[in-house]
Design goal:
heterodimer, A: mainly beta, Sulfite Oxidase, Chain A, domain 2, Immunoglobulin-like, 2 domains, 24 strands, B: mainly alpha, Cytochrome Bc1 Complex, Chain D, domain 2, two-stranded antiparallel sheet, 6 helices, 31% helix
């Protein structure tokens, strides 16, 4: 491994050499006698035939659902370790973004936010009703809904509370904890507009409320204009039916807007002429403003990015690294991501990996030779509206950062110490 | 006939999709099929529980007093929310916070935060108690709502909440909301010698 490291542009410092020695020592301790297989330099040894070459593998089961390797057992959703809830029904779990290698989040790792746990719904008995200000109230079974031609689209999903523990001080250690209320995937279902058209919007219809069949009866009001534009009734994600925790058998999906409005376990759509102002759009999911007011219906998830590798909790060595991360915008496509490896003084444009899709995760890459000096790395995204991802300082000038603050899209720095420890460096 | 129409519309959608190298920002044209079944209002009455909280539209017949609410609360809510709704082992306080929004310690309670009192009825009925939501009677929901409003000093001890009285309770945060006015930052894409 050491052999493959591209030499730094500047001679390695004492600290870097020390950290390298440190790393080697740790490797030896961790891997014991097996260190020779990977530790390089002086310790290269003849390769043995792997045990996996020398016998039967696991036979093919008659039926099966494949699971990750046991060696990936650490790649799990995790509840927040900063803001611990005293019950786990209205709670959340986060996607391990540092271990996500493409723009699609595996279904078992899509983040969760429920308001009364995950219901277990039989699709044979599930019903969707559309009523209110429509010409004809309608009822649909899942079988009915799946008879329509389907539409599949790639989009990110992000909770408005993503980052809420890390505005003014570093509270979370890893990118899973700072940004893991974020996932991406291919959503399959039918446009909401088709069913609203089928029911027939009455004159004056301007809003609709979407309600779930879970124990919280979660519901949100949404403007008809957005619903008719690009919202979907989704029954599948990444090629298979939704997992129960993602809304099985039916959910709303609202591209680019805060995840809370993409109501899961959807059972009812009621059309009206104004919003309902339910608890979840007044007392919660509103943003504190400096004059004591609250910003309401702040649906858009604005342009944002984060470096996922290297990120908090990792230890890196001096030399070559590919800085990797995600950028996304609820208002369009990502047009650029800049990376700074000197704490925001100078920036270089990262490479965006295609396809770069509207309101979807975009992966960025930037090749970096770390010279072993302590520094801070950070990313900044620009979207197709021309909006540039702000700093937290920019945001604090126009909003109140008190209490349960949401919609944190500030640029997010990671510090790298002289021995290569990567840490949350917000504020 | 229906299946022929479906086949034709699917073919048309595929033809459109074939031209697009990336996902379409607009959904495909609606197919000429209708699979919804008409449903009568009476048949969805148990589902039709939303309340337009700004004027109480949808509040059902029934009533409940502060005193009745105290009884319901102590039997079904106190274990999680604590005595006098001041916070318990599972959830924080539901009392106070009025006037705290211009300080750096905003206290969010139904009293300080809800712009309209019927939000209490809607939320309690659909979501509480958490282990058996939708189990309270309409009168119990009105009563617990009255009790919480009274603890917050917003209705007197002899108040009775019903479809008529509840929308008239003046909530202190009624005018506390502004509509989304973002983008509210104008960051500049500085590349060299920034800060």
């Amino acid at each position: 491994m050491e052999k493959a490291v591209v030499p730094s542009a500047t001679p390695p410092t004492i600290a870097a050499l020390a950290s390298r020695r440190n790393f080697l020592r740790k490797s030896v301790v961790l891997a014991g006698g097996a260190a020779a297989t990977g530790a390089g330099l002086a310790q290269a040894a003849p390769l043995a035939i792997p045990e996996s070459n020398k016998g039967f593998g696991k036979p093919i089961a008659e039926t099966d659902y494949g699971m990750p390797s046991k060696f990936e057992a650490g790649v799990k959703r995790r509840r927040t370790d900063v803001l611990k809830n005293r019950q786990n029904f209205s709670d959340w779990s986060m996607t391990p973004l540092a271990d996500q290698h493409g723009t699609v989040t595996p279904n078992g790792l899509i983040f969760e936010r429920h308001h009364n746990g995950t219901p277990d719904i039989d699709p044979a008995t599930h019903r969707l009703v559309i009523h209110g200000m429509v010409n004809q109230a309608l009822e649909f079974s899942m079988e009915d809904l799946m008879r329509y031609p389907s539409v599949s689209r790639f989009h990110f999903l992000e909770c408005s509370g993503n980052g809420l523990t890390d505005w003014l001080k570093a509270a979370s250690k890893t990118v899973q904890q700072t940004h893991g209320l974020l996932s991406g995937g291919q959503w399959t279902g039918i446009p909401v507009s088709w069913l609203l058209d089928e029911a027939g919007l009455a004159s004056g219809a301007k809003w609709a409320i979407f309600e779930g069949a879970d124990g919280s009866g979660h519901l949100r009001s949404l403007p008809i204009e957005k619903l008719m534009d690009d919202c979907m009734l989704v029954y599948a994600l990444n090629g298979e039916m939704l997992r129960p925790e993602n809304g099985y058998p039916l959910r709303l999906f609202v591209p680019g807007w805060e995840g809370n409005v993409s109501v899961k376990w959807l059972r009812r759509i009621k059309v009206g002429d104004q919003p309902w102002h339910v608890r979840g759009e007044t007392a919660r999911y509103t943003d504190p403003m400096p004059d004591g007011k609250w910003r309401q219906f702040s649906f858009d998830m604005e342009c944002k990015s984060v470096i996922t590798r290297p990120s908090g909790g990792m230890n890196i060595k001096a030399g070559a690294h590919e800085i990797q991360g995600f950028a996304w915008s609820g208002k369009g496509r990502i047009t650029a991501v800049d990376v700074s490896v000197d704490a925001g003084r100078n920036w270089q444009e990262a490479v965006l990996e295609g396809p770069v899709l509207d309101k979807n995760l975009t992966r960025f890459r930037y090749r970096w030779n770390w010279n072993g000096q302590p520094t801070t790395i950070v990313s900044r995204a620009v979207d197709s509206t021309g909006y540039v991802q702000p700093t937290v300082l920019d945001i604090t000038k126009v909003r109140a950062i008190v209490g349960f603050v949401q919609h944190h899209n500030g640029i997010f720095p990671w510090s790298v110490s002289a021995v290569g420890e990567v840490k949350n460096a917000i504020a | 006939m229906r299946s022929l129409k479906l086949a034709l519309s699917v073919a048309a959608a595929l033809a459109i999709a074939g031209c697009a190298s990336q996902q379409m920002s607009q959904p495909a044209a609606r197919p000429d099929v209708k699979f919804g079944k008409p449903i009568a209002a009476a048949d969805l009455a148990t589902w039709d529980i939303d309340i337009r909280t700004s004027d109480g539209k949808g509040l059902p017949p029934g009533r409940g007093s502060v005193a009745e609410g105290k009884n319901v609360y102590e039997g079904k809510c106190l274990a999680c929310h604590g005595a006098d709704a001041k916070g318990g082992p599972v959830f924080g306080t539901m009392v106070g916070g009025i006037g705290s929004f211009k300080t750096n310690a905003r206290v969010l309670t139904p009293g300080s935060m809800y712009p309209y009192a019927p939000i209490l009825f809607d939320y309690i009925r659909r979501s509480m108690p958490m282990d058996s939501p939708q189990s309270l009677s309409t009168n119990e929901v009105y009563a617990v709502s009255a009790y919480i409003l009274n603890l917050n000093g917003l209705v007197p001890a002899d108040a009775v909440m019903d479809a008529n009285s509840m929308p008239r309770v003046m909530m202190p945060n009624r005018d506390g909301f502004i509509v989304d006015d973002r983008p509210d930052t104008r960051a500049v894409r500085c590349m060299q010698n920034c800060k």
